[in-house]
Amino acid sequence: MNPPQEQATLAGTSGTGAATTLKIFVGGRWVDSSAKTTAEVRNPATNGLLARVPMGGAEDVDRAVQAALKAYPAWRATPPVNRVRPMFKFRELLEKNFEEIARICTLEHGKTIEESRSSVRRAVDNVEVACGIPSLMQGASLEDVATGIDSQYFRQPMGVFAAITPFNFPAMVPMWFLPHAIACGNTFVLKPSERVPLSQMRMFELLHEAGFPDGVVNMVHGGKEAVDGILDHPGIQGVSFVGSSPVARYIYKRGAENGKRVQALGGAKNFVLVMPDADMARAATVSTESCFGCAGERCLANSVVLAVGEAYDAIRARLVDEARKIVVGDGVEGGVTMGPVISAAHREKVLDYIEKGIAEGATLALDGRAFKHPKHPDGYYLGPTIFTDVKPDMVIAREEIFGPVLCVMKADTFDAAVEIVKRHDLGNASSIFTSSGKYAREYRWRVEPSMLGVNIGVAAPMAFFPFGGAKGSFFGDLKAHGRDSIEFYTDKKVTITRWF
Ligand code: NAD
User: Who is most buried in 87, 153, 288, 369, counting CB within 10 A?
Assistant: First the structure.
């Protein structure tokens, strides 16, 4: 039986809706892709077909880059105060269409409407930061570097930048890059995840309505072929990437080989350390939200609770109690606190991890495998799952599961816990729950994950701070948003001047 088709009710979007193939946005126009094949975009909550996305390649990328190159000289010559006028307008339009974007995000991704709203809010935050570019991209100067000689540096845009983004935050992650890049005077090509292109379709309509000149922002669709088209294109100066670590490593290497700037944010395995002196009730509630929010498909999900000494017995049962309160369902429904995972294939992958955990001897303290939605039997649902007695060398403790599975582990001492965290390669984020400032400081000092929560479950840096992990979780040096993005999207020109 064919799965049902759904109207995504994307009022005003360019050709979205079940039967349509999405267009690409090039030079200020929605045009057909030159792709030979398409992929389906499905609603994970129902398995209904939302749209078809063209799987474009180098040809589409080249069209977008040519448009961006053409737009660049005039955009670069536009004073920063004028460049941010359409950015302010874009912000207004995002506010006006906030609910619609959040709804599209939930339809294509599956997260709850509340989670979508939070992510759209974070997207708006980034646009707001970029509105401050006349202050942010200033250089510096020093009079009399030698007698009668002055020196100064300006920040200058570099040309065309591109971003390649993942499925888990369809509305937000592209906005970690696009607003900063274009506010700095560059032009831009976005390739959103082929699994969730619809939020960006709507947001690009708003970018167009905001009045950015044709060619300043462009969007192509596709997977690896489009990505390779970006990495190999000589007209692109730099690439921002967010996704899994193996792909991040590949992007970093191939982009750098082709002489580009690259920032590549990869996968995560985030540990939350719970000390015996922590507020256990709070630690349990916050860790549960952190692990199961967005069905565990969050690079900041604390997917391993590492309890020290007697904290293990104090928190284990509480975590199970908290997870039992989670209401699984279609994210658009009120009261639902956890939606489905992104695809049927990903559901199978998570189930496979659960089987591995059982086979390795972890205790299945909460089993979410059997969950079925009464109205949507074909949705990609899983209930929350918790393993206790997890050991650091088990597959479920080592690999990123990216689903609603929490691993609970014990360490005898603080030092032993720190060693476990340090041994792990995917050092994106971590949290510690404690009432001791000494342990909190010591933890921050010793472990590598570079986004750290102290009595906070999701250590998400705001738009004006740098976002990105460490070790195998990050490839590059300049992180996403915050001041790092101004560094990434500009070059510094130094002048040394003497007048006779
Ligand atoms: P993914 O790596 O499969 O895809 C990311 C992007 O790369 C997509 O646009 C996709 O089209 C493209 N891509 C996929 N396979 C490719 C290949 N072989 N060659 C070239 N390009 C390819 O990631 P995903 O499944 O979309 O997203 C989930 C991953 O993203 C998780 O690992 C998660 O931890 C990570 N993530 C990290 C952060 C962070 O800040 N570090 C934030 C969000 C998500």
Answer: 288
